Amino acid sequence: MSGDPRVRVVLERSGGFAGRTIRRGLDTAVLPAGDAAALRALVAGLPAAPPARPAAATGPDRFTYAVEVDAGDRHDVHHFAEPVPEAAKPLIQLLSAAPLLPARR
Questions:
Q1: pLDDT of residue 11
Q2: Per-residue DSSP letters for 21-67?
């Protein structure tokens, strides 16, 4: 086992044509070492202080995203509306292909 901290990241995407909310997530504890390192690097690229919750998406059929990061002593929720900032795009793209999680109750 490596000394790297466990990182769990959940993406909640809402809006779009159907208006559905979808949750997806990744956990470094269950990823291969290379994938876990890539996830840690993408999370490290997010701002240390999450931006304030943005206004709703700026056009019809646009998505809004909430990225929840749990990394030991770091627990943030980052909110983005389309267009997503360049620094967050790779993480949003990776999480958009991650396994689905149950809806919040």
A1: 97
A2: -EEEEEEGGGS-HHHHHHHHHHHHTS-SSPPPPPPSPSSTT-EEEEE
- In terms of Cα–Cα distance, which of 52, 41, 43, 39 is closest to 80? 52
pTM: 0.87
Whether the Cβ atoms of residue 71 and residue 5 lie closer than 8 Å to each other: yes
Structure tokens belonging to residue 88? 């967050």
Identify the CA nearest to 63 among candidates 21, 10, 105. Answer: 21
Measured between alpha carbons, how far is residue 17 from residues 4, 20, 62, 75 in Å? 40, 8, 8, 31
Split the chain (105 residues) into runs of 10 and give each run's mean pLDDT: 84 86 96 96 82 63 90 88 88 96 84
